[in-house]
Design goal:
DUF6698, mainly alpha, 3 helices, two-stranded antiparallel sheet
Length: 53
Amino acid sequence: QLCFALSSCESWQIKDEDFNYEVFYQNIIDYFEHPGSPEQQKEIDTLLLLWNQ
């Protein structure tokens, strides 16, 4: 919603100019569900601990 609020678009769309919200959402999900390394998993675990405090 922040990206939409800061954009010049007059209505919400899945793809707005060069930004695709569906791809953005899927990238976030993939980041958390499929870490690329043990170090990345540690970063994810730390982030989730901070968010859930």
